[in-house]
Amino acid sequence: MAIYTKEEAKQIMEKALSFSTADACEINLNGSESGNIRYARNTVSTAGHRSNQTLVVQSNFGKKSGTATIDEFDDESLKKVVKRAEELAKLSPENPEFMEPLGPQTYDESITFSEATANITPEYRANVANSSIEPAAAKDVTAAGFFDDSSRFSAMLNSKGLFAYNKSTDSNFTVTMRSNDGTGSGWVSRDYNDISKFNAGEASKIAIDKALMSREAKAIEPGKYTVILEPAASIGLLGNMGRSLNARRADEGRSFMSKEGGGTKLGEKIVDERVNIWSNPLDPEVPTSTWNGQGQPLKKTSWIEKGAVKNLAYSRYWAEQKKVKPVPFPSNFIMQGGDASLEDLIKNTKKGILVTRLWYIRNVDPQTLLYTGLTRDGTFYIENGKIKHPIKNFRFNESPIIMLNNLETLGKQVRIDGNLVPYMKIRDFTFTSLSDAV
Fold this sequence. Notes:
By secondary structure, the chain is an alpha+beta fold. Helix content is 23%, strand content 39%. The strands form 3 sheets. It has a 6-stranded antiparallel sheet. Strands 7-12-13-15-17 form a 5-stranded mixed β-barrel. Strand 5 and strand 6 (185-192) form a beta hairpin. It is globular.
């Protein structure tokens, strides 16, 4: 059994800590039970179950640290892993940025665990695959998908009296549908903490419909177009923008958040004033743990407010250097949306392009957050409020900053990769060349 209760986890960690002779000791205990099913060519190819548990000991002598890992928790094994961590610490060079472990903290009670997800069976996974394979085969489409689910726990204990525990569940589903003539492709992704929100048949139908709609795509000239970005198309660019909200990189002049001549863009307006982005571990749609890997409590935090940079993330070390309070990095990413559905956005577009997803995104210029990549799995030309025909894929060159300054309409929020991102209509999105890939 890889899922320990709070009391069981604490008992194991306290036993390990009792063997420590270091100046400071931090112990992390993690475990998971997970299952999966994979299918391709309309046939299940693999299925499995994994059970893992790991205890990690970090020992410190002054600013010297050593880490050791083990997956056996009897007294002799715990004594051995603590001793090994201490031996490594004594051999290690000093870490000039070492921070003492935190003392006791107060955490909100997380909402990351779902009993329904924890109770998923192999039969359930088989039904997920069947909900893709049968309708795909009936429409002369080939399905290739993957579904996995997990129950997890994480616990932390240190010699300063800190103890933290979190139990969570997750599920992830993705499927690519290809028309059997080789010219059409559709794709969909879903992820939930609570599996009762998931409908495999509904998700698969979207991918099947896009595969059929995208057959025999036509080429149009690259250039600047009004685009409707589904959340899977914008999350890569928005995520890269979110990762730039790093105070140290900004202070050192190494990011878009660095101000020319010194300083940061904290407080400056950088995108359209309708853009509001925050993180919240207690959001019921995208809950996360209420503490991070350093044992810091996570609270609702605003990052972009009315288009302006509200906060930058400060590690404990960098906060100490700058004489400010630490601001933990976000555990999720929530962007405020509007009321418009995808159908509404299409209906209100005279000429534009619908983009299902972007992939192979690569950095071009970190100072401007310019990225390049490709469209994939369903790109369509819109005319007079209707999808007119599929189009060949494009390579794009775009910055999320420019994109969010060219915002026309915010649509409804959708969960994607543990985040909430709205559909967006953007003007003057830059496509630079065609791609023949389906």
